[in-house]
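Notebook B, p. 112. Complex prediction, attempt 2.
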Amino acid sequence: MSEQHIKVLVAKKKIDVHGRGSKLIAQELRDAGMEVVYFRFGTVDDIVNAVVQEDVDVLALSIFTSGHLAITQKLIPALKARGVDDLLLVMGGCIPEVDFDALRGLGAHEVFLPGLPGEVVADYIKQNVGKRSLAETGKLAAAAQ
Amino acid sequence: MKPFVATTEHPDRAISRLISLLERGQQEGVQRIKKLYPHCGRAHVIGITGPPGSGKSCLVSALIGAFRARGKSVGVLAVDPSSPFTGGAILGDRDRMGAFAADPEVFIRSFATRGSSGGLAAVVNDAVDVLDAFGKEVILVETVGVGQIELDIAQLAHTVLLVLVPGYGDSLQAMKAGIMEIGDVLVMNKADQPGADRAVNDLCFQHPLKFGATEYKCSRYNAQHWGVPVVKTCALKNTGLDDLVFLASEHYAFLQRQDLLSEKNRQRRKKQFLDILSHSIRNSFLTVLKTDPDLQRWTSKIETLDIDPYTAAEKVIQFIQFAREAAVNTKHS
Ligand SMILES: Nc1nc2c(ncn2[C@@H]2O[C@H](COP(=O)(O)OP(=O)(O)O)[C@@H](O)[C@H]2O)c(=O)[nH]1
Ligand SMILES: [Mg+2]
């Protein structure tokens, strides 16, 4: 039963005006059969709290204005401090490609370019859910420093 | 009885993990929840139901604030429908409820209905017990009041708030007959919109009633002789919330006074037990059916109509009866 119901938190910055992109990805993931908690956050703690209480398999973080590096840097230690390690973290929105490697180094499992067809993200999630952990990315981040 | 205290994990994580285990029907969850029942039975369970878009989630958010201001810890279970085609769902309630991340006394969890056979009512039943055992004093259960599952869930609440909006007549017609009867308090939300007063008056078939020192408009008496009050709210501006919390608490006190609360709890446990029992019997029977050659011979007879399904079912029941008597006899001899 569990594997059929992948639960995703689609989190979007409250102040980002571009709600369309995150709403669209939420709908595309729903159409791919996933259960999507749609959530606009103010602080990193808002995200951590939602991840913990909803016990999602996947966090899809959508960021349109800047701040993606700072958020990711705070987010992953904060998640681990609350005992979350078995989470797949994907990012998207409007993130410059030059930052992709830095984000992966910080612990994001995958970063997506804007405007990709929804199946790309859904397929990535289906292939990787339950197989990646934040612990693994922590080592990467440590090695990168 | 004291709340259950998780020693190994952050309590929110412990609650959340346990609910997931139960949602997936895993045995580990069953083993864990067994230990929680001695800690259950103190929470006031409030159902919030009504048509989509009537402002239930916004109202839940306002209610969380109102109960927190009164020092009560709050658990929220929010249910949204799954798509019958893809099985996917958008769970948007949490987004409306935001802003409580810094408060450890608030726990919010979203659920998808997963179709009528998904067993959601059982999961929500368990989740109520988990939150109750972990010490949440008020548990708010939001459902879209349309389908049978939602009605089942609304019925496990002690108090049901039925949320309507001005011009509700049309939206009510889209809902199931009988929906009006499940409300213990009728809430006219979006009272800032035109037509709110007329809509309230349209619902009132009784003289106003006094609750405490205050008089409220009243819809009708329900089967328990509780006069169903009607209250106007505006969830976005936080108006009417004091009245709503007061009336919900009055209803709870009424249930206690009339000895209806323990009766409600007994009914809920009886139904839960029968549901669990029939579910387990069904499951173990289906497992046996897959492996037992005798039973397979039977089913093939049913399939070819060599024996009719009613007679076959009667024979199985007789067989279980014999087995039970045999067991009783050996114990006594
Ligand atoms: N004008 C007005 N709008 C409201 C009020 N409460 C909620 N809404 C709006 O109604 C819409 C649906 O609210 P939501 O809480 O998601 O409804 P639900 O589907 O019943 O949970 C949102 O756009 C809210 O902003 C209210 O008291 N007044
Ligand atoms: Mg809602």
